[in-house]
Write a structure and sequence with these properties.
With 199 residues, this protein is an alpha/beta fold. The protein has a single domain (6-198), classed as 3-Layer(aba) Sandwich (Rossmann fold). It has helices spanning 6-17, 22-30, 34-44, 65-72, 89-99, 112-117, 167-174; strands spanning 53-57, 78-82, 105-108, 124-127, 146-152, 178-186, 191-198. Helix 4 links the parallel strand 1 and strand 2.
Length: 199
């Protein structure tokens, strides 16, 4: 984990200490375990251009992607993090505060599809949890925006309501036509899929 720095580690540790229950502490810690970091770094490595306005759908605690994005793209002005789970918002706000992100990262407790279809000012839209969404990404993509989507074939897991059987099935479901990256990774018990491109 070479990318971690003292401030980031401190914000993670402080957020865990602010958890009110063991379940909340475990859930937050799960958001930055090794496979979570690896999959998001994989995505970051395949992004192009110089995005200024970014939207992350299914952002969970926003504990990894904003950090990696700011390290990769200093030009970013704003990141909107969207998650409809009210249980993640409190610790997401704690983490954001201790990272000093209040003026650059917005946390929205909203439905992902409703939010993104009514906001179109983004250079880059990311969704690393497409398997959790009750819709396919082809329902939200628009011209000119760069999209980066991840999913998997990990069926049978609670909350995995939209897994795909293969990389090609997932790629077809994104609605992207100008695809710059279409890759899969063997994670042991399942395969993870990554598709980056434009409509």
């Amino acid at each position: 984990m070479k990318f971690l720095d003292e401030k980031y580690l401190g914000a993670l540790a402080t957020s865990v200490m602010h958890a009110k229950t063991l379940d909340e502490s475990f859930s937050f810690a799960n958001s930055f375990r090794e496979k979570q970091i690896e999959s998001k770094q994989w995505l970051i490595n395949h992004l192009t251009g110089n995005p200024k306005h970014v939207c992350i759908l299914g952002s969970w605690y926003s504990s990894v992607l904003p950090y990696l994005l700011f390290k990769r793209f200093a030009i970013i002005d704003k990141i909107d993090c969207v998650d409809n789970d009210p249980n993640v918002q409190r610790l997401a706000k704690v983490f954001r505060h201790f990272m000093g992100y209040e003026h650059r990262v917005n946390l929205w407790e909203k439905d992902a599809k409703e939010f993104i279809t009514t906001n179109d000012e983004y250079d880059l839209v990311i969704n690393t949890s497409c398997e959790h969404m009750p819709f396919d990404m082809n329902e939200i993509v628009k011209k000119k925006t760069q999209y980066a989507f991840e999913s998997n074939d990990y069926f049978g897991i609670d909350g995995h309501i939209n897994c795909k059987k293969s990389l090609s099935e997932f790629a077809d479901s994104t609605g992207l036509r100008e695809i710059s990256t279409c890759e899969e990774r063997d994670m042991g018990h399942y395969k993870r899929f990554l598709v980056v491109g434009k409509c």
